[in-house]
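Order emerges. As here.
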Amino acid sequence: MELTGKTVTIVGLARSGAGAARLLAEKGANVTVTDRKPEKELEEMVRNLPPSVKLCLGSHPEEVFLDADLIVVSPGVPLDIRPLAEAKAKGKRIIGELELAYQMIETRWKSSTPFLAVTGSNGKSTTTTLLNHMMKQAGFRTLFGGNIGNALTEEIMKVTTDKTLPDAVVAEISSFQLEAIERFRPHVAAILNITPDHLDRYHTMDEYCAAKAGVFLNQQVSDFLVLNADDPETMRLYEERLRGKSGGPRICFFSRTKEVEGIYAKEGVVYVNFPNLEHPGRHRELIYTDAIRIKGVHNLENAMAASAMALLADCPIAAVRDSLREFPGLEHRLELVRELDGVKYINDSKGTNVGAVIKSMESFAEPLILIAGGRDKAGDFSALRGQVAEKVKALVLIGEASGKIRDALGDATRTIMTKDLQEAVTTAHEIAENGDVVLLSPACASFDMFRDFEDRGRQFKSMVQALAAAHA
């Protein structure tokens, strides 16, 4: 990828756009960033850009698209916006920040540094972080980023000499990032699950599934793809696009419910079953499920997926086992905030879609007081009905989607509308009894009331700690 003197337009000045701008400027490109947001909303990002980067903020001028040799699109920007559609019609090359990072790694390091890529609707961050922990435990040098932490283009800039070249790139990959790939080819990839999400961007589930399929689009027979054998949409994708096809990746599965070629759980034990590999062999005991530090049914799936990927990337089984025992999990994912008067308060702010909330509720036997709501992503809240009717003693709603959730679930349990998260926490505290769980798992995006899901989760934790201080 020759960039010196090239005219490059970056569309969208978020974390990925800023990382791409800095990397491209370092490589001698003439960089312009365009974003519909005005400069006052992007001050922090603008402040950290090199002086040579030109800014077109508050609009998308036609000329910055049509005069570009290359257009790099941030994940949050849909590819069907008019300026991009017109540029594509005129033959302009359009790629995403993920593809830019991948091709820069190919060019800069001239090596076969393997990509380990995790995608799926839910569990990506936990699985990717656990996988990175496993690789580091075994002594591998990793470059870690993507849809989690820093943009990959940002991480590439930290690698300055051959002595620091990573042994592997461990990346969380979103469907948005996969929309704009060309050659992106992970050596080991995983699709954790596919449940309805981002249907405010995708018109159908088929479109969403097609985006996820990009993770294996360029894989070859020397590569591996890890799939959730218990997830209907993932298996439908496998049946329609992969089963019986030649030239694609080798398939391994993980399952909580049945024996598979890959990794599975049975009667409290996780087994490794790779019949086509010498190591670690067939039906070999990996770990007792009780010994896995992160809890919950979805985290068992995440642990199995990360284990499969690590083993396929030549990570020793001892390092995998040790990591499963040690890894504490991530903030905002079924995070115990504290126990107060016999009531557990759980921060699951990362539960931003219906599928994630279903898995979260499956992890509890106790009666739940569920705090939900936020900005709707065209979710089907009625899919929660069975779990809500069975487990939720009270549904406390906030945000823009509260009315839609009430209409879908309000007759399944006691339902209370509140004006904000503070009132929701106070209400939940007043209702809760010894042995209950207050669970923040919103099934919605956070942007109606908060900066992001992390802001929402941290405010929830502060409110819970304030309750404890008031009752001390």
About this structure: The chain is about 35% helix and 20% strand.
